[in-house]
Amino acid sequence: MNGCPYIASSAIYLEADHQKNSTMFGTLNDEQVKELLSANIIGRIGCHSDGITYVVPISYVFVDGTVYCHSREGLKVEMMRKNPDVCFEVDELTSMANWRSIIAWGKYEELTAEQDRNEALKHLLQRVLPVVSSQTTHLSNSWPFAPTDLSEIEGIVFKINLEKITGRFEKYDGLK
User: Fold this and answer.
1) What is the CATH number of the domain that holds 77?
2) Backbone φ and ψ of 93, nearest 5°
């Protein structure tokens, strides 16, 4: 093997200097960012207050540049009320060498007016969820059906008005 580094796989050795690695890193364009945000239902919110930084997964829906969420009272809501500046992250991981990720910054806004809250809930209820899904994504006891009266849905409804978004990807096509 001429002293060259090699890759071991099922007792087959490939000389690294004779193989070309086809990896591409890049930046997602606006359409790819919107597609990634629209195609997923789980993201992570990063918030900070009183000297504590907190990152937590949350289900969401993305509509026209805005992330809508539903939550119970808790630490993240308490922190976002104190400091509405948040970070939001979504990623798709096909493998460790094939992924897409966005990070966005925006402002938390709790939706308490009935019309705003109901509009956000309608967006959340229109998401396509997997048949086997977390209780936290089911907004009411009538899931998978929407309740006739949206005021029956308990909890906090909020949106994140996205102000800045960056997206990156890695694509590995194997050895060429």
Assistant:
1) 2.30.110.10
2) -125, 105
